[in-house]
Amino acid sequence: MNGSPVTVSGRRARFSAVEGVRAILVAVPASSIPELDDELRVRLGRRYGSAIDGWFAQLPDVLEDLAERWGVEWGTLIQRGSIAVVIRCQTADGRAAVLKVSPERERLAHEAAALAHWRTPHVPAVLSVDESVGALMIEAIEPGTPLVETEGYPSMESVASLLRSLHDNAVPEPAYTSMESVASLLRSLHDNAVPEPAYRPVADHITYLFDSSRKLYEWKPDLVELVSPSYTSAAANWPCALRPRHPRRFSCTVISLR
Known about the structure:
Blueprint: E1 5-8, E2 11-18, E3 21-27, H1 38-48, H2 52-70, E4 73-77, E5 85-90, E6 96-101, H3 105-116, E7 126-130, E8 135-139, H4 156-168, H5 179-192, H6 202-219, H7 229-242
Antiparallel strand pairs: 1-2, 2-3, 4-5, 5-6, 6-8, 7-8
Helix pairs in contact: 6-7
């Protein structure tokens, strides 16, 4: 075999032949796991404390095993997030991907299940999942620039397009209560509640929330380009208009939607 790749103990290798000499195995190292540096350890340590140390000690072996099973070529760390190690990588068929590994295995499994419920270009495809080690590989979003690093905010049209796409292409999840059931519950609570004078009217609470949101324009003046203050003012007047007809006061309680 001349130049045929094989795998030996998790490392790539090639057989090469020299004239009249038997084939020699020449080891060619696979792409190296990126350094799990102090910045990464400190960031996850803020969330998990010293309990993360043992997990980090086992992580290189976990990553090597995933690379061998999933045919991953390692890229660079993505230094964001506080629940997982996130690494750029490439699949065996050359697709750009992102691999996440987290000590919160159940949480990552839920993330994979949630992503799999959408069939839209706005959501990255799930490529591989291993719940036993808390690993998830998804397709990379290009160019992958975080919103906080962009020069401006996305237009309202693009946000609306995103929400419509998520709504229209989602696979219904029967484990969750329908919006119709939630609406029916809220109507029933409103129509049958006994007013509680010790609590402020709901309209007052809503007005307070809108007044608080106006401060965002002081902190982030460029928000004006995304959401006009006139929208906030119009929405804030709506609960005031309800006050004469719905002066009821409610306390909060835990209720079941089932």
